[in-house]
Amino acid sequence: MDETGMSDRKRKSRHNLIRYVLGALLVFVALNAFAGGFYGMSGAEGVPVEWLSGTPFSDYFIPSLILFVVVGGSSLVAAVFSHWVLDFIVHTPDLPLLGDASTKLGLGLWSNAWLTFFLEAALLVVGLWLYLRATAPKGGSRLARFGMVGVVVFLIALNVYNLFGPPPSAFMEVFGLAMVSYLGLAGIAFWLDRLRPPVDEPVKLRLSL
Questions:
Q1: pLDDT tens digit sequence for 49-75
Q2: Domain residue ranges in the chain
Q3: How confident is the model at residue 202 (pLDDT cuts 50, 70, 90)?
Q4: Which contacts qualify for 193-196: CB closer than 8 Å, 24 or more apart?
Q5: Cα separation of 3 and 114, whole Å?
Q6: Could you please report the per-residue DSSP string of 96-143?
Q7: What confidence tens digit (pLDDT) does each residue in 126-184 have?
Q8: 63 Cβ partners below 8 Å, 6+ apart?
Q9: DSSP string across 42-57
Q10: How far apart (Å, rounded) are the C-alpha atoms in residues 130 and 109?
Q11: How far apart are CA 166 and CA 191, in angstroms?
Q12: Neighbours of 172 (CB within 10 A)
């Protein structure tokens, strides 16, 4: 197999892994919301009613119904719909619209490494911009001011390696590296986030560095 074919397989494996992880997380949220909503609508035994003080609710039935329908339902729909949408963006035209005999759709994003890179980098930068607007550094330390920026720069550099570096020798190599990277970076981001508490009115603030 030539380098182009191996690179395409690498991008497909990476996107498939991300898609399945996100889908699993959404299903997990949906199942928790369904279970919590059902428990609340059944009486919420053991949960103090005093916790509803100051709210328009006298019991947990309506809040639990909202949890069940809105949070659980929307998460489940998102898990299914986002799966197809992400496939539509990255797949070549092989996604049937209505059955195998119907029109096949797909934008084929992963066939263009540079377009993939710039789109993912743009999403990271926009997310960082929104985060910096909504938080402020605690204590004014450089780590609090620039730590999360460093995480995003590292993610972009890692993406460059993923897209343009040498292809992996096996799928488990991709899986292992992805799990270590995602879990490690998530832990670092969680720690850095504690150094940047949210502000009261993030929409009115400028970039907080």
A1: 888 888 888 888 998 999 898 888 888
A2: 1-111, 112-209
A3: very low
A4: 193/135, 193/148, 195/137, 195/138, 195/139, 195/141, 195/143, 195/144, 195/147, 196/131, 196/135, 196/136, 196/137, 196/138, 196/144, 196/148
A5: 16
A6: ESSSTTS-EE---GGG-HHHHHHHHHHHHHHHHHHHHHHB--STT-HH
A7: 989 988 888 888 887 889 889 999 999 998 888 888 778 777 666 666 677 777 777 78
A8: 40, 52, 55, 57
A9: TT-TTS-GGGGTTSS-
A10: 25
A11: 32
A12: 9
Q: Which residue has the higher pLDDT, 83 or 119?
A: 119
Residue 163 near residue 117 (C-beta atoms within 8 A):
yes
In which residue are the tokens 């992963």 written?
110
Tokens of 177: 């590296």
Q: Which residues pair with 105 in a beta bridge?
A: 95
First CA to last CA distance, the chain: 48
Looking at the chain, the whole-number percentage of residues with pLDDT higher than 70 is 75
Alpha-carbon separation of residue 60 from 43, 74, 182 (angstroms) = 7, 20, 37
Helix (H, G, I), strand (E, B) or coil at 204: helix
Mean pLDDT value across the chain: 78
The answer to whether 78 and 24 have CB atoms below 8 angstroms apart is: no
Q: Which of 105, 72, 71 is nearest to 91 (CA)?
A: 105
Q: Which helix (H) or strand (E) holds 200?
A: none
Specify the DSSP class assigned to residue 95: E
